[in-house]
Q: What sequence folds into this?
């Protein structure tokens, strides 16, 4: 049973996120956390775009917020997003990882520590290798990992790094990712 | 990345540090604390936490380095410019109505925020009435702050932020540049006292009219946040202002009832009443 989905993306990520969300039902219950690499001053973009487009409840993460069902969490720009053992978020201003803050690795690794095999990790389009180590950690801790097909991604480097690190065969075209998530969650969808 | 930091070993290290040096890290948010421990072990090429603990306990000079590494903070000039605009709009008129006033940057890191506010106070002709305390647990950062020395690579972003914070002149007016570094105008620190202070455990040192504590309490767990926010609240006069990080909050904190929200986005609050002596 899966209690959390973590999704990391960079260049081309906003369009990819929109495509995936369009394939999920309105009453989707499993919480999702998004780390989308963004410019410092463009938080409003991702948050506003998604809020205007979808009925899901999007939350701009604040320090110490508790993770709840049926919510979709957006990492704030220029902080690392971490998950604590008590399933709350914490933030930090530690050094960028792979030149990135928020770093997908930081979210994925801390999530893997807490959620272990109850976790799904998704790596999407992006132009650097942030997220590959984190995806591997999720896999090592028993979670399910999934990568966007690099050949049709706007930016192939991130998903390619993820595949190289994990040797996962769960590689899907963007338009099939939502269906695949629903399939593996079938036993885990509440209510 | 920390997947081999045994949590029992971390607890033992925390107990040892508190026992020997009196610094209590027990209620720091564990995830970032562990990540920093791992980075320190890597930096000094140690084998494991046990070795780190041994070094710390037996070598006070090493502990000083450790303390600086475990509390490192980064900051920018005019970080989150909307906050500085809110400060000018809401806090400056209050400060202007006073005679002398006290400002406390609690967790000042290398001084970027201190100098940013000093510049704006100067431009608003309030600086001469200000007594500014800039404190941090990290002595290395304090040293940089005292010197007003910053890497040239930071200056370009600082200049952009200064403009966004609607600075009146040019950020360059406040600097002397060399090839690698920039030094802030020493006049900006004339009214600033830089001092070592540990928000966990040290006492309040006076009553302030304006306290800034931004992106500090993110490193603490909820319990410690409440304790530190209590210290800040008790150090602030009624009618005084508190400013915290834009992703931090007073909501659901122990001190929420003592403040009214002045600017939510900027996380700027005004103290409306004192905590009674009976509150712990």
A:
């Amino acid at each position: 049973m899966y209690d959390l989905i973590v999704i990391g993306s960079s260049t081309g990520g906003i369009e990819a996120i929109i495509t995936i969300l369009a394939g999920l039902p309105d009453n989707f219950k499993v919480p999702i956390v998004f780390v989308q690499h963004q410019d410092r001053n463009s938080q409003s973009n991702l948050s506003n775009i998604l809020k205007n487009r979808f009925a899901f409840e999007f939350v701009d993460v604040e320090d110490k917020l508790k993770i709840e069902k049926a919510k979709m969490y957006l990492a704030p720009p220029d902080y690392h997003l971490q998950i604590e053992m008590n399933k709350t978020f914490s933030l930090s201003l530690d050094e960028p990882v792979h030149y990135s803050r928020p770093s997908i690795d930081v979210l994925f690794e801390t999530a893997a520590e807490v959620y272990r095999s109850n976790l799904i990790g998704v790596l999407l389009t992006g132009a650097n290798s942030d997220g590959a180590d984190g995806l591997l950690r999720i896999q090592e801790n028993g979670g399910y990992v999934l990568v966007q097909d690099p050949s049709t991604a706007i930016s192939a480097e991130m998903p390619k790094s993820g595949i190289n690190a994990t040797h996962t065969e769960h590689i899907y075209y963007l338009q099939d990712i939502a269906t695949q998530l629903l399939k593996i969650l079938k036993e885990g969808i509440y209510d | 990345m920390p997947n081999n930091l045994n949590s029992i070993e971390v607890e033992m290290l925390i107990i040892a540090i508190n026992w020997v040096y009196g610094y209590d890290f027990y209620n720091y948010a564990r995830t970032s604390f562990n990540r920093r421990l791992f980075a320190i072990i890597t930096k000094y090429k140690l084998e494991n936490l046990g070795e780190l603990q041994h070094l710390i306990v037996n070598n006070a000079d090493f502990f000083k380095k450790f303390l600086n590494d475990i509390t490192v903070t980064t900051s920018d000039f005019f970080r989150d410019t909307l906050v500085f605009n809110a400060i000018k709009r809401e806090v400056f008129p209050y400060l202007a109505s006073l005679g002398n006033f006290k400002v406390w940057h609690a967790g000042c890191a290398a001084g970027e925020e201190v100098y940013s506010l000093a510049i704006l106070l100067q431009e608003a002709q309030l600086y001469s009435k200000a007594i500014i305390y800039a404190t941090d647990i990290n002595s290395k950062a304090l040293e940089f702050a005292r010197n007003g020395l910053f890497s040239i690579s930071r200056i370009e972003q600082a200049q952009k932020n200064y403009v966004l914070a609607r600075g009146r002149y040019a950020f360059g007016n406040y600097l002397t540049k060399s090839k690698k570094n920039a030094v802030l105008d020493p006049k900006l620190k004339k009214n600033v006292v830089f001092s070592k202070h540990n928000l966990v455990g040290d006492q309040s040192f006076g009553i302030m009219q304006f306290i800034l504590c931004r992106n500090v309490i993110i490193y603490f767990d909820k319990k410690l946040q409440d304790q530190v926010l209590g210290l800040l609240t008790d150090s602030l006069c009624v009618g005084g202002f508190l400013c915290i990080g834009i992703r931090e909050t007073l909501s659901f904190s122990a001190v929420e009832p003592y403040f009214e929200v002045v600017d939510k986005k900027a996380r700027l609050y005004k103290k409306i009443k004192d905590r009674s002596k009976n509150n712990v």
